[in-house]
Amino acid sequence: MSAWSRHLYLRIWLAVVLGVAVLMTLVGWAWHVSVEHNAANPPLREWVVRNAQGEVLASTTARPVPGTPLEIQVPMGGPAPMQLFLERRLERPGGGIVHLGGRPPHPRDLSPWWARPPYGFIWMLALMGLAAALALYPVVRRLTKRLEGLQQGVQRWGDGDLSVRMPESGDDEVADLSRRFNAAAERIQNLMAAQKSLLANASHELRSPLARIRMGLELMDTPGAHETVRDRTRHEILRNMTELDQLIDEILLASRLDAREADMGTVERVDLVGLCAEECARVGATLDVPEGMTGLEVQGVSKLLRRMVRNLLENAMRYGAAAGHEDDVVLSLSRENGMPVLRVCDRGPGVPPEYRDRIFEPFFRLPGASERAGGVGLGLALVKSIAERHGWKVQCSDRDGGGACFDIKTP
To answer: What is the Cα–Cα distance from 90 to 102, expressed in whole angstroms?
Structure first.
């Protein structure tokens, strides 16, 4: 591929220059045709012969024919009219007369050959074309230079530099393309960072229960270990295995939710009242619904909605309910502007305002939270992913009297 076809600005510039050249050619051709037409068809002229008293003796209207004299018949009162032949003569500078007939005389043109017709017009067209080409080049170059910058940025981004961003100056198509590229690059960079963070945190979280399981097995194999110690160690191993299984399950679910094209199940009508009643009964939380509300149906994937409600309740029971006070956790259902609203409130320490967005990040724990509280750091992240998958939004706020509330509703 030649350099002329590789560079877009050269192709655009050449297209404009060729367009100007074609236009100039057409203008020159039209001018030439017009000149030839006027030369081939001279205008009509009226010739009049008068006597000394000013009386019109004869007149004629004719178009002069180049090379022939003009003939006029003047009646003289006799049997035959007098015939007059008119022709033009041009005196030579050195003497002598040149008979031109009906052709008008032209003085000798002493100008240079490039200034004589039609060369003067051709030179004028050439200069106009050259001026247009020189004036258009910086305009076309400025436009295509931004495209080249975008091409180089995409090349760098494709080579692995995900931090590349393009300038978004202007309101034309190139600026819009740059904005779209920046938005896509930002999203992909965030997704890659989230995947790396998920992998790093998952490795850490998987290592912790595995280490505790190995330690428990070593304690059980210790000679002379008391049976009570063995039972307690066995119970701890089972608890860590359950935590490990839950962690793996939630990591897989989080990965599938991140893949938007993944099929998560059949979308159907789900009764939130029945679903929430089952989950509240399982953990001992309180269900609060308006009087007379026997059902609240929404479109969604039943297993995902159940996981969302279960994670919210388990998180509230783990961090926001005192021992023996399960009624501190309340799940309420209502409608706002005809749209369903699900709220889970607890009586825990609450969430500081600066962490109310970060608690939905994978593996994030509030400062001071213990890893042995039972959570794996993915519960609320899954709640947010499932809510967004259904077109909802989740947010955290304070509860009157102390505690935290998590609201899920249509934005």
So the answer is: 12
The two beta strands, 330-336 and 286-288, are: parallel
Contact (CB, 8 A) for 352 and 404: no
Q: β-strands 88-91, 56-62: how paired?
A: unpaired
Q: Record the tokens describing residue 272, joined without a space.
A: 């939130």
Query: Do residues 98 and 225 both lie within one domain?
Result: no
- Structure confidence at residue 102 (pLDDT): 44
pLDDT tens digits, residue range 57-90? Answer: 777 776 556 667 777 777 776 677 777 777 666 5
Quick one: pLDDT at residue 406?
93
Proportion of the chain above pLDDT 90, given as a percent: 8
Length of the chain equals: 411
Pick from 232, 262, 292: which residue ends a domain?
Answer: 262
* pLDDT reported for residue 280: 92
* Nearest CA among 253, 244, 215 for reference residue 374: 244
Does residue 399 lie in a domain region?
yes
- Tokens 């003497």 -> residue: 95
Of all helices (H) and strands (E), which one includes residue 325? none
Residues 20 and 117 in one domain: yes
Closest CA to 396 of 295, 303, 297, 320: 320
Residue 209 lies in a domain: yes
Q: State whether 353 and 370 are in the same domain.
A: yes
Quick: pLDDT tens for 337-394: 888 999 999 988 888 888 888 888 877 777 766 554 555 677 888 899 899 888 899 9
Domain carrying residue 57? 3-129
Q: How far apart are alpha carbons 367 and 56 in whole angstroms? A: 122
Verify that 369 and 400 share a domain, yes or no: yes
